[in-house]
């Protein structure tokens, strides 16, 4: 049984993108194109075709900019490894520039002003950890920045809107205590050195991190497939794309068709993980029943439909504090706790999601050395 997973791959020195150009729905054939670059020269793209028996589209999503001018040019997202590397490089550069003789106080404040847009779990976690890093590590190494460097979190509504109200209040107090300035507002325009809010307020920045959720990528939008509400690839109860036999879609790139009567699932790792496990079992069962070949399982019984059960949400707010909300929905009742115990639960749950015991060991050792000796600021 031929099985292909479409995704973009990247490495430090070489980037290879496998771009799906067209999907020949009834010929079980995809037309692809390679784009390779090693940082020195760009190779000419090479077209090729791949036949398949079953095709799974799991290409994820991209950060939502809501069409705001300047976001893609000046903001850094929190999606890929290279985004983390760019944040590290930008923060270190600004710390060095702020120490150059002759730099005015206003310019120092701009260079060292870290702005995070988006008050969801990702934006809150990043703001809390960044402020924690600044308070505990940066102040020791760069004593001259103590009165200039700070973090601002901008959110149009309430932060952590999907969490229990009590947890949101706790998160607000904890972030404020950690030195994060919370601003309620909507970004209207992003310029190289400042962003403009809808009320006309200018917010100068040196580092701008954008974390306002995700939406369909151009790769998904351009595909000639039925779409779910919001522009994702539409799937049925078994994660199939109805108009394309033997084609499935999972993760952030897919959503239920309106005809299923089911709401679009949130763009969370736990959703994609369980969809992947479900689909793997489904394809294995198809293969065992003789329906693994192209056009071979159209009339076969697929078994139980995919059902998603939310396990809860967690978020850290810095200073060894976190939130754990184990309710299945915002309206449901359940356990919700905050504080150090939640932080320990959050870390433990995170460690269980690391793929191998080797990596779990490395991550645990890194956490331990950071806890004892602090972060190695020479490797920001």
TrEMBL record:
Its EC number is 1.6.5.9. GO terms for molecular function: NADH dehydrogenase (quinone) (non-electrogenic) activity. Residues 45-276 form the FAD/NAD(P)-binding domain. It is a peripheral membrane protein. Its main location: mitochondrion. InterPro entries: FAD/NAD-bd_sf, FAD/NAD-binding_dom, NDH-2, NDH2-like_C. It is an enzyme of class 1 (oxidoreductase). Residues 310-376 form the External alternative NADH-ubiquinone oxidoreductase-like C-terminal domain. The keyword Membrane applies. Keywords: FAD, Flavoprotein, Membrane, Mitochondrion, Mitochondrion inner membrane, NAD, Oxidoreductase, Peroxisome. GO terms for cellular component: mitochondrial inner membrane; peroxisome. The keyword Amino-acid biosynthesis does not apply. It comes from the Eukaryota. It catalyses: a ubiquinone + NADH + H(+) = a ubiquinol + NAD(+); a quinone + NADH + H(+) = a quinol + NAD(+). Its cofactor is FAD. It is found in: Mitochondrion inner membrane; Peroxisome. Belongs to the NADH dehydrogenase family. This is NADH:ubiquinone reductase (non-electrogenic). It comes from Artemisia annua (Sweet wormwood).
């Amino acid at each position: 049984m031929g099985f292909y997973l479409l995704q973009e791959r990247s490495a430090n020195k070489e980037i290879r993108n496998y771009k799906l150009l067209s999907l020949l729905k009834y010929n079980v054939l995809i037309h692809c194109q390679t784009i390779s670059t090693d940082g020195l020269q760009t190779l000419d793209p090479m077209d090729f075709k791949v036949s398949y028996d079953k095709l799974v589209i799991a290409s994820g999503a991209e950060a939502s900019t809501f069409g705001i001018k300047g976001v893609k040019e000046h903001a850094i997202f929190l999606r890929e490894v290279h985004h983390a590397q760019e944040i590290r490089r930008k923060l270190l550069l600004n710390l060095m520039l702020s120490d150059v003789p002759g730099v005015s106080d206003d310019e120092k404040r701009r260079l060292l002003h870290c702005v995070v847009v988006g008050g969801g779990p990702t934006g809150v976690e990043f703001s809390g950890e960044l402020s924690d890093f600044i308070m505990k590590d940066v102040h020791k190494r760069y004593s001259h920045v103590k009165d200039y460097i700070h973090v601002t979190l901008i959110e149009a509504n309430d932060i952590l809107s999907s969490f229990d109200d009590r947890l949101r209040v706790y998160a607000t107090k904890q972030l404020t205590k950690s030195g994060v300035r919370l601003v309620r507002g909507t970004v209207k325009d992003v310029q190289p050195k400042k962003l403009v809010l809808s009320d006309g307020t200018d917010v100068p920045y040196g580092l701008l991190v954008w974390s306002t959720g995700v939406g369909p990528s151009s790769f998904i939008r351009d595909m000639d497939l039925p779409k779910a509400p919001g522009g994702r690839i539409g799937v049925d109860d078994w994660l199939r794309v109805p108009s394309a036999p033997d084609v499935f879609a999972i993760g952030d790139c897919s959503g239920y068709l309106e005809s299923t009567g089911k709401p679009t699932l949130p763009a969370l790792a736990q959703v994609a993980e369980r969809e992947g496990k479900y689909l793997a079992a489904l394809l294995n069962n198809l293969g065992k029943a003789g329906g693994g070949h192209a056009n071979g399982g159209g009339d076969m019984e697929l078994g139980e439909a995919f059902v998603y059960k939310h396990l809860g949400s967690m978020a850290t707010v810095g200073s060894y504090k976190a939130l754990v909300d184990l309710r299945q929905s915002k309206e449901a009742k359940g356990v919700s706790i905050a504080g150090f115990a939640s932080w320990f639960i959050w870390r433990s749950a995170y460690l269980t999601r690391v793929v191998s015991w080797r990596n779990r060991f490395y991550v645990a050792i890194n956490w331990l050395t950071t806890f004892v000796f602090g972060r190695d600021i020479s490797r920001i």
